[in-house]
Automatic annotation (TrEMBL), chain A:
Keyword Phosphoprotein attributed: no
InterPro entries: CPA3_Na-H_Antiporter_D, NADH_UbQ_OxRdtase, ND/Mrp_TM
Bilayer disposition of the protein: Multi-pass membrane protein
Gene Ontology cellular component annotations, sorted alphabetically: plasma membrane
Organism the protein comes from: Nitrincola tibetensis
GO MF term set: NADH dehydrogenase (ubiquinone) activity
Keywords of the record: Cell membrane, Membrane, Transmembrane, Transmembrane helix
Annotated GO biological process: ATP synthesis coupled electron transport
Predominant cellular place of this UniProt entry's protein: membrane
Membrane spanning residue stretches: 6-23, 30-51, 76-99, 106-124, 130-148, 160-182, 194-217, 229-250, 262-287, 294-314, 326-351, 371-388, 408-426, 447-471
Recorded superkingdom: Bacteria
Ranges of residues in domain NADH:quinone oxidoreductase/Mrp antiporter transmembrane: 124-420
Protein name: Hydrogenase 4 subunit B
Subcellular location: Cell membrane; Membrane
Length: 482, 315
């Protein structure tokens, strides 16, 4: 049964989608949770398989690349697959309680297609297959945003759709050019023949712009805040924690597989500048929002900037510093996924209590729902990058790498970004500590909602204590030029 | 002679594209867009890609055209703002122009280099064609060598229908449908429907040896469904959301099941046993044809809310 765990990552979510479209209400929920359990077990068995035999490939339909499509299980893919399994299952539990029956009916199939798309992207080592995965992901995400049926969210969903389509077209154009140049779509094979000619530079340029648009990197970000801020709470958590990571993951894959840090130092520099702008702009905008969910959405924008700092720090000369930057970046991605999902869920609970979106309506909540504020705060610790959180370790590794290479600008940017994030998170807190005149009338959220939010926030802190456990999965040679 | 044909096609293509972008009335630009699809399918034939030509004619010009016309009628019925014309003062117009020119220039630069693919994938395809169960290379790639891509693509189609359903449920202006109770149309349809169905099944069957296949057959089938709907033959199937959804997932379910059975026998996902590859591919394609036809029809069906206004708006 050596083929099972890896195929299960695709088959189970697709089965989930089929089941949730075909069955009646009760069976839909029961089967969904059975399949979620199966997927979690499946991830664990894949982890053990990876410990047993290391990195391995799986040829779909027994046709090996370049004729067929090969999936690849390596440390990076495994980390992302585990991350999405954790976040998605907690969000599913939250959604099951939080959403109404009619919303759930559409939520489940979208959720399952989203998960299938994520897994297909983590595992794929084929450029066109990645495109198909991206399409599946974007459509599922757009559908999820459209679930909240007010006019502004529909407009946000449509805007998101256009941005995502434009990004896909850019990526596809690049893939077509690369295929015309090298005659293969398989990423490992491409990296053997790759050399930075004019046409491949243009191709990679198109691909990167398209993918960065889908990740909402600074100048192409304006679709993100309304979409993430306006969606239903569990959807916001899924989108911010997982969906934007997928397109970034492909950029990271391309960059490391094709050893672009050797080919072009200025490209890395450009990515770093975009990232820095995102950190500062996102932080500043988050500080000026009046709606709680928009604060968190802009905070995502800033956090994406930190991921971008990986690229200027990957250097062909200093293997150790590059490795530190890579590890730091991956840790930031993970910590952000856990913390941001936890933060959105906690924020959703707070908004549920007050019934309004405004920050001012939070007044008095810190006494009424201390557990929830605690969950929000723990997630905030990781976002700000205070020890002992995953966010702290990630930033620490990035700073260390920058100092080793004496690239002081990035150190300054990271520190300024952390100050900004501390400012916008404490600003939210200060609203919750205000007292209201004349009694408050809050609704009480179900206990499950509070505990799910707390569990993700706690995980983001635990990640700081168990960072090495995760980072050991990454091979030392992941970055060092092949 | 051939160069002359190519040059004419390119000129027509560019002309139609410009017209459909810059013409004043939206109805005309949709018409030009449909024409563009037809000419594009001719271009695909000139490029030796009859499969894509078929798909382009059926989906690009056919179903997309229907959907665009439908959206247009809907727009006219519900919005009272006239379509906005291009305004030269707007910075986003110049941004679009600038980035468009940039993309064209970059593409021009990229293809100016001589292309000499290192890996000859077409040779590998013809080497392995005998084991794929079909003799048409495109079908072999789509449903055997790269069947995993196709599986995910089918999931994308189901998802598209699902998004349409979601948007439909948040539509605040459901308008009662009015059909075209035309005796002539009824009579024609009686004559045409068996033929359309036959063409669809032929495309499906032919797919294993020559251009054709599930996507083209599905698109043809969808057009038959749309015609049926327009003359007012309501099917019970289309009214019930359960049947609607089960129709969408039928093809995907067959595909996943056929792909997952080898897992139990210790083979990788989507491996077909050599002896039955041809039959299994045909089975999957049959399921896909029905589902694709149903999904494309559903996209049309779900956007139906303003057909009452269609007649008086037609110029």
């Amino acid at each position: 049964m050596a083929h099972f765990p890896i195929a299960g990552l695709i088959v189970f979510p697709l089965l989930g989608a089929l089941v949730s479209l075909a069955l009646s209400k009760r069976w839909r929920t029961v089967m969904s949770f059975i399949l979620i359990t199966a997927l979690l077990l499946n991830n664990v068995s894949l982890l053990f398989q990876f410990y047993g035999q290391g990195t391995f490939n799986e040829a779909m339909g027994n046709w090996s690349a370049p004729l067929g499509i090969e999936l690849r299980v390596d440390g990076l893919a495994l980390i992302f697959s585990l991350m999405s399994a954790l976040v998605a299952s907690v969000c599913a539990l939250y959604a099951c309680v939080y959403l109404s029956a009619t919303q759930l009916k559409l939520f489940w199939p979208f959720f399952w297609f989203l998960w299938a798309a994520l897994n297909s992207i983590w595992l794929s080592s084929d450029l066109f297959n990645l495109y198909v995965g991206l399409e599946l992901l974007s459509l599922a995400a757009v559908g999820l945003v459209a679930l909240s049926r007010d006019a502004t969210s529909l407009a946000a969903a449509l805007r998101y759709l256009f941005a995502a389509l434009l990004g896909s077209i850019g990526y596809l154009l690049g893939v077509a050019l690369l295929y015309a140049t090298y005659g293969t779509l398989s990423l490992p094979e491409l990296s053997q023949h790759f050399s930075l000619t004019l046409s491949s530079a243009v191709a990679l340029g198109f691909m990167c712009i398209g993918l960065l648009m889908k990740t909402a990197v600074f100048p192409m970000h304006s679709w993100l805040p309304p979409a993430h801020g306006g969606a239903l709470t569990p959807v916001s958590a899924l989108l911010s924690a997982l969906v934007i990571k997928a397109s970034f993951y492909i950029v990271l894959r391309l960059w490391t597989e094709l050893s672009l840090e050797i080919a072009s130092a200025s490209a890395g520099m450009l990515m770093g500048i975009l990232g820095s702008a995102a950190i500062l702009w996102g932080g500043w905008m988050a500080l000026n929002q009046t709606h709680l969910k928009l604060v968190i959405a802009y905070s995502t924008l800033a956090q994406v900037g930190y991921f971008m700092l990986i690229f200027p720090l990957l250097s062909p000369v200093d293997a150790h510093a590059s490795h530190l930057a890579f590890q730091g970046g991956v840790l930031m991605l993970l910590a952000h996924a856990l913390a941001k999902a936890g933060m959105f869920l906690a924020a959703g609970n707070l908004l549920f209590c007050s019934g309004q979106k405004d920050l001012k309506s939070l007044a008095g909540l810190s006494r009424y729902r201390p557990l929830n504020i605690f969950a929000f705060g723990l997630a905030g610790v990781s976002i700000m990058g205070l020890p002992p959180s995953g966010g702290f370790n990630g930033k620490w590794l990035l700073i260390q790498s920058a100092m080793l290479q004496s690239q002081w600008v990035w150190v300054a940017v990271i520190i300024m970004g952390s100050l900004l994030s501390a400012a916008y998170i404490f600003r939210v807190f200060s609203y919750t500590y205000r007292e209201v005149e004349g009694g408050d009338s809050f609704k009480q959220p179900a206990a499950v909602l509070e505990w799910t939010a707390l569990s993700l926030s706690v995980l983001s802190i635990l990640l700081g204590l168990a960072s090495m456990l995760v980072l050991d999965l990454l091979p030392i040679s992941a970055v060092v030029a092949q | 002679m051939n160069e002359l044909i190519d040059l004419t096609l390119i000129c027509i293509l560019l002309g139609l594209a410009t017209l459909s972008l810059f013409t004043q009335s939206l109805f005309r630009s949709v018409m030009f867009f449909i024409l563009l699809g037809l000419i594009l399918s001719l271009v695909w034939i000139r490029l030796d890609a009859p499969d894509i030509a078929l798909a382009e004619a059926a989906i690009g010009a056919g179903i997309t055209g229907i959907l665009l016309l439908d959206a247009l009628a809907h727009l006219r019925a519900t919005s009272n703002t006239p379509p906005q014309l291009l305004q030269l003062k707007q910075p986003r117009f110049w941004l679009a122009l600038l980035s468009g020119t940039g993309v064209i220039l970059a593409l021009g630069l990229a293809v100016s280099e001589p292309l000499s693919p290192v890996v000859a994938l077409d040779l590998k395809v013809s080497e392995n064609l005998a084991e794929s169960g079909v003799t048409h290379p495109i079908t072999a790639i789509l449903l055997n060598f790269r069947s995993y891509d196709t599986l995910l693509e089918v999931a994308v189609l189901v998802l598209a229908a699902l998004v349409a359903l979601t948007l439909r449920q948040s539509d605040e202006h459901p308008v009662a449908n009015e059909f075209l109770p035309n005796q002539l149309l009824h009579a024609c349809l009686k004559l045409f429907f068996p033929m359309i169905f036959l063409v669809s099944m032929y495309l499906l069957w032919a797919g294993s040896t020559q251009p054709g296949g599930a996507f083209q057959a599905g698109a043809v089938l969808a057009s038959a469904f749309v015609l049926f709907y327009l003359v007012g033959l309501k099917t019970q199937l289309a009214q019930n959301e359960h049947y609607l959804k089960r129709g969408w997932i039928f093809g995907l379910a067959i595909f996943v099941l056929v792909g997952a059975v080898p897992l139990l026998q210790g083979q990788p996902f989507l491996t077909y046993p050599d002896a039955h590859a041809g039959v299994l591919i045909l089975l999957i394609e049959l399921g896909l044809t029905l589902s694709i036809g149903w999904i494309l029809f559903s996209l049309f069906l779900l956007s139906q809310s303003a057909s009452t206004f269609q007649k008086k708006d037609t110029p």
